[in-house]
Amino acid sequence: MRVRVDPLVCEANAVCVGLAPEVFDLTDDDELRILLPDVPAEHADRVRHAVRSCPKAALTLDE
């Protein structure tokens, strides 16, 4: 599973960071960083939830 962000759509609301902080982080400039683009199995459920919860639908999951 791989997660991606569309930086043109992302508004850095940090919903994903709150749901899966091991995978997502915000920079000091409020840009989303994906720490683990190839999502480990133990984080898969939380990342799926984060992708569904993104208020701008800026995250994409390739399974």
UniProtKB/TrEMBL annotation:
A family per Pfam: Fer4_15
Necessary cofactors: [3Fe-4S] cluster
Protein name in UniProt: Ferredoxin
Coiled-coil ranges per UniProt: none
InterPro entries found in the cross-reference section: Fe-S_cluster_ET
Lineage: Bacteria, Bacillati, Actinomycetota, Actinomycetes, Streptosporangiales
SUPFAM superfamilies: 4Fe-4S ferredoxins
The entry's keywords: 3Fe-4S, Electron transport, Iron, Iron-sulfur, Metal-binding, Transport
